# Entry
Amino acid sequence: MTSWLKRYDLSPANAGFLLLLWCFFIAFMLYPLTYVFSNAFFTDKGFSLIFFKLMLSSPDYTVILANSINVGLVVTLLTTLLSVPLVFLFVRYEFAGKGLLNGLILIPLVLPPFVGAIGMRQLLARFGSINLLLLYLGVTDQPIDWLGAGFAGVVLLETLHLYPVMYLNLAAALANVDPNLEEAGRNLGASGFKLFRTVTFPLMLPGYFAGAIIVFIWAFTELGTPLILGYRELIAVQIFNMVTDLHQNPMGYALVVAVIVLTLLFFYVSKRLIGNKGYEMMGRGHLASAARPASAFLTVVIYAVVMAISAVSLIPHLGVFFTSIASRWFLSVLPGEYTFKFYREVFSHDITLLSIKNSLFFSALSTMIDVVLGVTTAYFLTRKRVPGRDVLDAFAMLPLALPGLVMAFGYVAAFSATPLDARINPVPLLVVAYAVRRLPYMVRAVCAGFQQTSVALEEAAMNLGASPMKTLFQITFPLVFANLVAGAVLCFSFAMLEVSDSLILALKQQDYPITKAIYALLGRIADGPYIASAMGMLGLVLLAVSLFVASRFFGRRMGELFRA
Amino acid sequence: MVSVKFDRVAKILGQSRAVDGLSLEIKPGELFFLLGPSGCGKTTALRLAAGFYVPDEGKIFFNGRDQSGIAPHKRNTGMVFQNYVLWPHMDVWNNVAYGLKMRRVSEEEKKKRIGLALKTVQMEAYAERLPNQLSGGQQQRVALARALVIEPDVILLDEPLSNLDAKLRIEMRAQIKEIHQKIARTMIYVTHDQAEALSMADRIAVMRQGHIVQVGTPRQLYTRPESAFVAEFIGRTNLLPGRIEECADLLTVRTQVGLIGASNGVNGMAKGDLVFCSVRPESVRLLVSEEPPPKLTNQLTGEVQNIMYLGDSEQYSVRLADGTLVRAVEYNPAPRRAEVGDCVVVQVDARDVMVLPREEPGD
# Structure
């Protein structure tokens, strides 16, 4: 044992933390997944593919699967089409107010589509504001069915929410393309779209796929938006419905396995397309040549495009805002009267007040877990050569690839009839689920800090007589403090608005977090949607403030967090 | 003052034995250099002394005390890192104060010692600056002060000057040597720059592939190298391959350009051994053909291939009959005595020829 510790240069305290990490990962990642898989493939009579045969032969399920895949693909495509021109305009041109517009582009990221969906319903319903406006203006004499079955609505909301993720990834990728490589292409006679197709885009591909993976998985497994828009023919919604009767109907396991398999398949395909190695860029030439000043005309065009996109992506949330301050809004373009009483009700109504308390408590606890696990994991990944390092890394990053839905489902199933049973007391699992969901962000944030902090800075302290513990607290932590804070703020605010874990794991009203309370309120006829909107607005403000704070600490590297 | 002893120390890093059977005795108060090309294990040896690496074999002693199992922060060494490694979140004063805080030195004493350390490196005026407000040379001085202020038993310097520009580097050499004389503490200094080692060291250990090739004073290493590697690494030299023809007072070596007589050789060489004759360029004399050649030993004829004028010296490359290039340097050069293409005679005194074994020991 001691020789083992010595070989990997670990102190007993190190070894203790390492053991704790492994236990956590095994208990809350490996075990639930194994449980789901074994239930999907094994019946009382042993190994069986019966559920999968059923799934693939029943048109109900194949349609649902196809719908979900389509949502994923269409959203990925639309976000691409939306971001590519934006990225080129922003990376290649300098113009007044660039920073401001850049911020405007990123705003939709902080507007959870789950909340936006509430506003969307109000605006785009059969007798919603937009149809009423069109009828009033005489553009049409029949209300238009904007949302259809719900597919279009889900795709629209997801696209508007996720294009900033694509934008951040593409911008980083393009900024990384050495302008000299393009100049070489131009020198040899390529220009315009040809240059883009043959040189620029191939070099951007790794960054593009990194963004595409996240966008696809996000859209493919989104639960909150379709639930609120009432679009039930999606695999995520089906899984949600099956959680309650798992024991009678094991089909849920098979659906979850299908989601995992499809997710991994997409990961695999995109990694193959990248060819698993990013391109090493040669030394940079004159970087100044990357961005040139935009002409006055082009500046106007850029402003127009960005304003238009931002306006469209803000519409759903404007709907939420108006709903939250409308004393009554029915069959009119805008509410007839305004009031702030619903904001007061948020803080007096028992469901809402309790849910805010719950969310604060759960999120704070899960953030603490993330800080401990994130710092520990990052430490072992960057500072030590521990055995099984790659597996540790894979575990820490797994939640990026595993939809929250899958994890939440696995928790409910795997821990039923244990002391952690979510049906009895969901709090521990909720907290753990929140923590696991956001752990990759924390690990990334802290790893980045450790990597930028030379080990020699720590060695210098030890050389001057500081013990390893003192070094950690006086040198290492202060130097990675900004990253730590940024990571923690992100973890906290995302946990506050976490949808799928909350909807699936919190089963009793007394344990509802904010998101589940919003969902429950929407089902109430009278004032439900108004209070839900008011609460959604508060959530938006919280998330926006948090992301602003986090980006202050991160500076320009914020985008790195949203990459696979 | 503390002596440092490496006793058959080995350290495996990755697949290779970065340090392999290293034995060394550094005397108390010595300014000792570890010199070698990159990858020779010199920095590894220094980090072993600091305790950042644990030896896989062998032991390290400070004043006879075994350091195995003593953590880096308990060794009382002061290390100056290659990239300075000042903590960016602390100002100069706090960087320097850090080691004293760890040692719980009283406030008054601390003030005195930090003041003195900063004065020693001429940085008193910069105590409140942050590291990123300092130039490279200033950061280097602060790093030095940070190591000096704790009055360490051993000061470890890891290529401390390699990131400075050429002129500042030469100034800092003198300053560090002066500081060493003033504080009288054992210093181990790692560098790949042979000029730095020659100009500063009390003694130098030349390292190659994890072990020591030769230890000696700068003068010993330059004038009496024991291997072609040392002869080539320290200073410049001409190596003429040959075989020992006669082993008397004067060694006679048969080379492709004729017989060469030498009065210096590594001990234990015998007739028939394959050897190099090592001749420093500055001991090669250039005789222009028109002058009547005096009766001197070791005269070789050749053609001037290349001339480089460097101001304080002029370098000639002469191609001998068999194609070997011989470099000759003339200091304080008189007006040019030969042109490219001229036929010249090069001559070396027997006492300036070192006969070195052709096979490297340990290869």
Remarks:
- Chain B is about 25% helix and 35% strand.
- Chain B has a mean pLDDT of 89.
- Residues 229-357 of chain B form a domain with the OB fold (Dihydrolipoamide Acetyltransferase, E2P) fold (CATH 2.40.50.140).
